[in-house]
Design a protein that fits this description.
543 residues, alpha+beta, 6-stranded antiparallel β-sheet, 20 strands, 34% helix, Guanylate_kinase_CS, SH3 domain, P-loop_NTPase, Membrane protein, palmitoylated 3b (MAGUK p55 subfamily member 3), PDZ_sf
Amino acid sequence: MPIVSANTGLHETLALLTSQLHPDANHKEDLVFLKDVFSEKSLSYLMKIHEKLKQYEKQSPTPVLHSASCLAEDLAEELQSGPLEDDERELLLLLSTPHLKAVLSAHDTVAQKNFDPVLPPLPEDLDDDLEEESVKIVRLVKNKEPLGATIRRDEATGAVIVARIMRGGAADRSGLVHVGDELREVNGNLITHKRPDEISQILSQSQGSITLKIIPAVGEEDKLKESRVYLRALFDYTPFEDKATPCQEAGLPFRKGDILQVVSQEDSTWWQAKKVGDCNLRAALIPSTQFQESLRRSFRLRKDRHASPGEAHTPDANPTEFLIYEEVTQYLPRPGDRPRLIVLIGRSACIEKEKLELILRGNKFAIKHTQGKYCLYTTRARKCHEREGVEYHFITKTAFEADIQNSKFIEYGEYKDNLYGTSLESIHRILDQNKVCLVDVQPEALKTIRTAAFKPYIIFARPRVSINQGKQLGSSSSLSLGITEEDLQEMKQSAEQMEERYGHWVDYVLVKEDPVSALAELQVVLERVQLEPQWVPVSWVRS
């Protein structure tokens, strides 16, 4: 037999004992059974926990005194009673500071409190029908946060069953409540005859300690594996306005364009997710894509309502625009990758094209520059100062119409009997030369260029000036630019419509106050696109 000393740990002793179990012919079955029991990982973990508790019992630090605050006050009074030396005066000053008083008060609170774990007593008046069942008494501590669990009524038995455990919530952190557990009592009150919404209200309104009487689920415990699926929300969601949600307090409110990390998709109807950038670590419920069809119909009706005559011609809408989520990942161009297409939408007239070209030409960029006008084709006659392929590409009306039929334009339109269009081929040619290409297009064109080939970074230039601000600014700004109150109203409505219909595709909102500040802000954004990873559709990276 191995030598076991007093310092040998309990789990080490168990391991030594297991190694000595050699089955023989006479007691083979018994020894095999015993070895299997001793080899169980759960038993080894229990032994380690037992040792840690014994060490805590032996080495638990004890406070020197329980009233450090009183001692400090007595010392301060003693110092104030007579003349002070420099070091005594400094000590008195330290003892009078609120920070030190707070630290000493916290010390006394901890010193006077017993932190040993206290288990709730097992109720003596157990129901007769529970005598043959395994009953678990769970005590959880929660503040104003939700319990982090939803419940349902079993249609066959009428039992109240734990339906979901929200990742990071109080129930999940405890490790004591599992999906499928039957809930019998809350704080000593029988809840088997209450409706699930009544029980949820009791749980949400409870503060501090909550005692639950539970019959554990039969079978394996819930083993959720946190996924790494990220979604961009394509609609606004407010759980307190959703009557279909199983628990409104467990819902996750989000706005169009928010990035959500889905941590569980085991429930086909309600997924668990967190909002990226939110300091709250608890997961909450979001509707799954099963709701997509109903929302798709709603989006289509809203789209038809907002459609207005005179919009730029673009190819047919992509069916994916009606999805409620878009799976995304972070992307940063690698050496050798084409630059991302920079797209401006909105009323960007105040961003002067010549100054913008100077920014793109600056030394801060390791790549060459270009601008949207290099991609423009027109049927009008070339002016004497214009150069072919610089200001515009000048082609005949017949050639232009043929290019329309061959889908060679992102967008096109007519102005003063002349046709103008932005060429797809020209953009590809510029990007292939490792140049930054910036195009200023109507938002409808995003349906064509928002692809893996371009990986566009979309900037929405939104005006800040309201109608009242326009009146106050007078001739020095808006009036000097020839902008009337009607223009301001139209700009405001156009911006709102654009955000409503295309806001979920926008990577950055550039709020324009004046051309100088807009250009400076735009320069910072363009640098960030080259240096920092951005969220893009997964299909752009996988394709």
